[in-house]
Design brief:
By secondary structure, the chain is mostly helical. The protein has five helices and four strands; from the N terminus they run αααββαβαβ. The chain is globular.
Length: 144
C-alpha cells in the first residue's frame, strides 16, 4: 500500500512537471518520495492543491491544445492532446486509489466509501440545485 501511494504521488509529480515545467521531476515510476506516512500525506495534500490550482487555471483553449513530453519507462518523445493527458492523470489516480481501497478493505474489513456521488453530495461540489441530505455523507462499508 505504501508503494502504491508513493507511486500515485510520483506519477502526479511527473505529470505536473510535464504540464507546468515546475516541481519535482522523478526519473523512476517506483520512486519512494516519502518513507513516513505522515510526510507522504502532507506531500499528497500539497500536490492535490497544486493540481487543483493548475487545472482550475486552464481555459477551454488550453485544454483543446497539445503538450509535448518525454516518456520515462520507454524513452520517447510524445505530443498529445492535453484533454487526453488530463484524463489519464485523473484515471491513474482513480485506478490506484481503488487498489488502496481494496487493500484497506482486505486488511481492516472496512474502508471509507469512495463513491464520487456521495462525495459530491457531502461537499456540495457539482450540485446545481438542492442541499446535500445528512444521509449522503460517506459511510464506511464492512466487508462481508
Amino acid at each position: 500500500m505504501h508503494g502504491t501511494l508513493n507511486h500515485l504521488l510520483t506519477g502526479d509529480y511527473i505529470w505536473m512537471h510535464r504540464l507546468t515545467g515546475e516541481g519535482p521531476s522523478p526519473t523512476r515510476l517506483d520512486a519512494i518520495q516519502h518513507d513516513d506516512f505522515g510526510h507522504l500525506r502532507t506531500a499528497r495534500q500539497a500536490e492535490d492543491a497544486r493540481i487543483i490550482a493548475h487545472v482550475s487555471s486552464l481555459t477551454p483553449e488550453d485544454i483543446s491544445g497539445t503538450g509535448r513530453y518525454r516518456t520515462i519507462s520507454n524513452p520517447g518523445d510524445i505530443e498529445e492532446e492535453l484533454s487526453l493527458a488530463l484524463l489519464h492523470v485523473f484515471n491513474h489516480q482513480t485506478h490506484h486509489r481503488g487498489q488502496v481501497h481494496c487493500l484497506l478493505t482486505k486488511i481492516t474489513d472496512e474502508a471509507p466509501s469512495l463513491d464520487l456521488i456521495r462525495y459530491q453530495r457531502q461537499t456540495g461540489i457539482g450540485l446545481i440545485k438542492g442541499a446535500a441530505p445528512a444521509s449522503s455523507a460517506p459511510q464506511r462499508r464492512n466487508r462481508r
